[in-house]
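Handout, section B. The chain below has 307 residues.
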Amino acid sequence: MLFSIVIPVYSAEKCLKTLCERLYQALEPVTPHYEIILVEDRSRDESWKQIIALGQQDKRIKGIRFSRNFGQHCAITAGLAQSKGEFVIVMDCDLQDDPQYIPSLYQKALEGYEIVYTRKKKREHPLLKNFFSHLFSRLFNWLSEGNTVTRPDVGAYSLIHRKVVEAFCQFKDSHRHYLLLLQCLGFNSAIVEVIHGKSQRGGSSYTFRRLLQLSIDGIVSQSHKLLYLSISIGFVFCMIAMASIIYLVVMYFVHGFKEGWASTMVLMLFSTGVILMSLGILGIYIGKIFDQVKQRPLYIIDEKINL
């Protein structure tokens, strides 16, 4: 089998049939030997029934349904674990990732690249979402100190070689991000430019809260710099406190020192905020360690078709 197409599915009942038709159009001129793995992340609509119907029409369409919602990146992991193709294409289900670029990704891979990313010329997302995406990329790249680099215009739409899939599946991180793990793996990579289409699903399934949680998980799972940053902030405050004590003693003997409750309260509140922030950062890391050592499965499969 040449290709495995791994697609996490959530609330995509209306566009799955169109998605498969466009996949046929892109894949058939290259090879008839492929499989389409649709991983249904326990949607609230009838996506699973649609997957069953498509699978009955074509055995190359395979379905996995989770027992509950585990998230996009666990769905990608499940699809990769079940894939059999020499090359695996990962893409979204809402047709913002156009299947017509699959032959271009494949041609680039034949040049000797194990990972082929896609770069969007223009992201068809709301202005606010694009802003926070750029902000997260800048913050993450600064915290990772160049060890892992993210770009807001590079998405999950990608092609990876079988050996990359096998290496990816060796990672057992309970909190995972597909692109960040690919960065950790290394391998030769290239980028193909694509045009980002408009979502056919009727809006993103990611709320602001889920995006924030995903951002925090990505940062703490790939960087320890936040811990060192909190230590540095604490050290700076200790130096400021020592300088302030010396200043107060000198001013008391030189001019006398007048009480200032407002400045004292502001300093106390600000210091308390910094302490709580540092404890919160530490607590997040401890929580992630706790989740990891429990060694729970990343996902639980409820049903399969054609697998």
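Note. The chain is about 50% helix and 15% strand. Compare this with the example in section A.
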